[in-house]
Amino acid sequence: MKFLSAFCIILLTLARHIIADSESFGLLSIRSGSNLQYASVYVNEGKLYVGSGSELSAVVTDAGKLKFNNDSSTFAVVGSDGTVIEGSEADASDKFSIRNGHLIFNNIDGFYAIPEGASYLFSTQNAENAVGIAIRATAPNGQTVPDFSPPGVNSSSSFSSGTGTPASATSTVAQSETTSVTAVSQTSDGQIIAIQTENSAPRAVVGLGASIAAAAAALLL
């Protein structure tokens, strides 16, 4: 019994070392054929926008929260209308992940840019005249960061299902050497309908799992 307890403690310790935040990345808008192609997600007076402002960088924490790499270390807070603001960790939304080089929220690969004067609000929900976009999680070297699914967050993603009427677009994003080209196709209503890619992140996870299994086997000998 004591041996079993010690064995469980070792496994939990190994798991804690494996689970950490994602790599740091910039939030880059993808919407071919529009002025939002390769636009940045930025903060202005506490609200998140899509446009030509200074690009935010962030990490997805092991709690599924989007933490901004700024002086205040603020977090993304998704409002009831889908718009996103800066806030504290206590108020932060916790359904973020990274899959196929894209930022995911609530298992949906797709966001919206909602016109507000000459700017575009960054949102997780559709609205009148909204433009459907994807958010590429871009590393400092220009490649995409590895997939990251926090514990308790479903690693599979569906596609955006808004009912607005953004212009039709198809975009192709160059991936890293360990990632194939990602194709994002959108219908006339801005829905993202096809994303095909593969990368080495799942294999890396398998490798980590194998390490735990090896350690467990050694203890049983």
Automatic annotation (TrEMBL):
Region (Disordered): 142-177
Residue spans of biased composition, Low complexity class: 150-174
Keyword entries, A-Z: Signal
Source taxon at top rank: Eukaryota
Signal peptide residues on this chain, from the entry's feature table: 1-20
Protein name per the record: Cell wall protein CWP1
Organism of origin: Torulaspora globosa
Taxonomic lineage from the root: Eukaryota, Fungi, Dikarya, Ascomycota, Saccharomycotina
